[in-house]
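Entry 0007
Protein: Glyoxalase
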Amino acid sequence: MNENFHQKPVTFVGEVSINVMNLDDAIMFYQDIIGLQLLKKTDRQAVLTTDGKTPLLTLEQPAGVTPKEGRTSGLYHFALLLPTRADLAEFLRHLLQTKYPFGAADHAVSEALYITDPDGNGIEIYVDRPSDRWKWADGEVAMGTDPLDGNDLLEESDREWSKLPEGTLMGHIHLHVSDLRKTEEFYMQGLGFTVVNRFGGALFTSTGGYHHHIGLNTWNGVGVPAPKENSVGLNWYTLVFADEKARNEVTKQLKAIGAVVTEKEAYYIVADPSGNEIHLVV
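Output (structure tokens):
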């Protein structure tokens, strides 16, 4: 039940690229445990998909790759949004059968399972509750972290899991940052996102009334450095804009707050104040 929070004219996260220690091992994990499919592969890169055409996750093994560093900015988790609650039930059953370790939470707006890949990259697999059941007050959406009722979820479907369904989307990304004030200016005044929830050193931001497309937190510490370029973790993520006009407007806003925007052939690149790289695509 994907609503209209991940299609134009909403600005949303489209694809995420992460570094891994060993490409072949990572491909096996993302196929066998997560259920993505290989779209294309080179010696140092693999692009993964659910529908056989749309890239969702790109794995990179950079030269001289180093393990994930603690207490830096970068990836907290990327989150794959499943089409239906039955899909999440089947994925939960798969995790229980494989005995792969996971966490779980009920966030009021969604139900979520949390996994860490073998290199320490965080992954959320979740399903949204219908948006008419989300509770808003004064421009903020109510989100919590309560125990997930796994038995109730499992009753949603008795089908065996085989892979992630074709309609799976990159639902959101959640990042470690070093300074919430600078981060808020960048994402609000620069990228044009709206803060929809704040608590405990975190901002949740979105466009189009979603509960969040981008989460941002200082839970690794205020003032933490960016990780080394070749370490395990986030390479970049894409923000998909409605059209050239919308993207051009945002690049003007970014430059107005002092951000450096670099133009490539098919996209623009900008980094947030903590060094998280974003590709602006149409």
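Curator remark: The chain has one domain: 4-84+161-281. The radius of gyration is 18 Å.
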